[in-house]
Amino acid sequence: KVLARVGLTSCAGFLTGCSGVQSALDPHGPAGEELARLIWSFTALCTVIWLMVMGVLAVALVRRRRQAADPLETDVQSEHAASRAVLMAVVATGLVLVCLTVLSFFANRTLAGIGADAELTIEVTGYQWWWAVRYENSEPSRIVTTANEIHIPSGEPVRLVLKSQDVIHSFWVPALHGKLDLVPGVVNTLTLQADRNGTYRGQCAEYCGAQHAHMGVLVIAQPRVEFDAWYEAQLQNAAEPSSELARQGRDLFLNRPCVMCHKVQGTVAASNAGPDLTHVASRKTLAAGTLSMSRGNLAAWIADPQSIKPGTRMPTMNLTGDELNAIAPMEGISRDGCNSGARSLF
Ligand code: CUA
């Protein structure tokens, strides 16, 4: 009974892994679709081989039983038959390997051909354990920097330039593309395209230290008009605090070590050692997908990041309750934390 329950649970767990926002089997773009096709053809071929092997094994077991009953049955002829069978199996294995190689070769060619004409270039840099995101633009004043959340216009190819600042990470948004490593000193490029609007979750796919599992990324594909509006909003400086509490929060932020690592556009905070916090309240998650964005979670994170993500470079700030209340008011943020109009940190 216990075994059955364990079996059912793991089976259900396996199946839930096949759908939702982070699944290679639920593709939403040309590269994802090509890879899903490859996964299914490998799976089909391997299933046929597995069934054949099981069939041959069953026949062998039955024959072995018969032979045990009559040990003298083995003769030269059946020895020859066995050798022939082994030879055929070797040839078949070789053919199957060639077949799989050809399939993946053509899939690779298709992937390489996608989006050669991408207009938008986004630089994604891996850090332990978060993603820096920077939208390239020929005009320096129109470069947008953000973190852990990549907005893209749906239906358009976007070029991602992948780099790493410390160790090897791997960028993987299963519904849209395969994995590609971010290697220190190396520049890798990948074309991302989502054919439908939606939020796609990604995950660092190369073990990169204690909090590797908490290195998530969101790709938000939206209609071009919405994307352009988002982009313009990101270019704005952080809004001036409109309440006394928000003013206290801003002063706290600017007078604490926060400014040593973070940037908030329009203030003296201009470091890029940690995530850019301009318009942080407009993002859906905190600490690279570790927590959903809400006022309470933001306060909890600032109060004690080490208990939420042990090993993170974000130190404990030792703020009082009143100070936390001031630093995390997130003006204009909606209850679910994804109001794109929320632009203020303070
Ligand atoms: Cu970064 Cu694993």
UniProtKB/TrEMBL annotation:
| Tagged with keyword Secreted | no
Checking SUPFAM superfamilies in the record gives: Cupredoxins (SSF49503)
Topology relative to the membrane: Multi-pass membrane protein
Residue ranges constituting the Cytochrome c domain according to the UniProt record: 244-335
Q: What is its main location?
A: membrane
Highest taxon, organism lineage: Bacteria
- The record lists the membrane-crossing segments as 39-62, 85-107
Q: Where in the cell is it found?
A: Membrane
State the Gene Ontology BP annotations.
ATP synthesis coupled electron transport
Q: What class of enzyme is it?
A: translocase
GO MF terms, alphabetically ordered: copper ion binding; cytochrome-c oxidase activity; heme binding; oxidoreductase activity
Q: Where is the Cytochrome oxidase subunit II copper A binding domain?
A: 117-233
Q: Which chemical reaction does it catalyze?
A: 4 Fe(II)-[cytochrome c] + O2 + 8 H(+)(in) = 4 Fe(III)-[cytochrome c] + 2 H2O + 4 H(+)(out)
Q: Identify the GO cellular component terms for this protein.
A: membrane
InterPro entries membership? CcO_II, CcO_II-like_C, Copper_CuA, Cupredoxin, CuRO_CcO_Caa3_II, Cyt_c-like_dom, Cyt_c_oxidase_su2, Cyt_c_oxidase_su2_TM_sf
**Which keywords are on file for this protein?**
Copper, Electron transport, Heme, Iron, Membrane, Metal-binding, Respiratory chain, Translocase, Transmembrane, Transmembrane helix, Transport
Pfam families, per this entry?
A: COX2, Cytochrom_C
UniProt-listed Gene3D superfamilies: 1.10.287.90, Cupredoxins - blue copper proteins (2.60.40.420)
EC number(s) on file: 7.1.1.9
Functional summary from the UniProt entry: Subunits I and II form the functional core of the enzyme complex. Electrons originating in cytochrome c are transferred via heme a and Cu(A) to the binuclear center formed by heme a3 and Cu(B).
The similarity comment for this entry is:
Belongs to the cytochrome c oxidase subunit 2 family.
**Descriptive protein name:** cytochrome-c oxidase
Organism, by scientific name, is Nitratireductor aestuarii
Upper classification of the source organism reads: Bacteria, Pseudomonadati, Pseudomonadota, Alphaproteobacteria, Hyphomicrobiales
